[in-house]
Design a protein that fits this description.
The chain is mainly beta and about 110 residues long. About 0% of the residues lie in helices and about 50% in strands. It is built from no helices and ten strands. Strands 4-5-6-7 form a four-stranded antiparallel β-sheet, with no helix packed on it. Strands 1-2-3 form a three-stranded antiparallel β-sheet, with no helix packed on it. Strand 4 and strand 5 form a beta hairpin. The chain is globular and about 40 Å long. It starts with a strand and ends with a strand. The model has no long low-confidence stretch (mean pLDDT about 90).
Length: about 110
């Protein structure tokens, strides 16, 4: 059991919570930070994690091995990528000034 967390200052972190008895106290990071600073949000669909990176757009990571995530691609967005949501095969990206971008995810 793993939790992914976006940290604006450091980047993306992966935490192993399989042995955690509760959500109190610190949990050791399995890996991270990944992808550099500016990670504003993260969502997961299947074996991929999508990270909102502000002016850098969206990064896609293969997390099939959570202990060694690998970058797949970076996708620029017309305005800074701030928040993400996934519904079925679509990734929704909110940008500055209320912009919303829809990206169809190919399995």
């Amino acid at each position: 059991n793993y939790v992914l967390a976006a940290d604006e200052t450091a980047g993306l972190f992966v935490f192993d919570v399989s042995g955690a008895a509760s959500w109190t106290g610190a949990v050791a990071s399995v890996t991270g930070p990944l992808g550099g600073a500016g990670a504003l949000d993260v969502v997961v669909r299947g074996r991929y994690a999508y990270v909102a990176k502000g002016a850098a757009g969206v990064q896609m990571w293969d997390i099939s091995d959570p202990r060694a995530p690998t970058p797949v691609f970076s996708l620029p967005t017309p305005s800074a990528a701030l928040r993400l949501a996934v519904h079925r095969e679509y990734l929704y990206v909110t940008g500055q000034a209320g912009a919303v971008y829809t990206i169809k995810l190919v399995p």
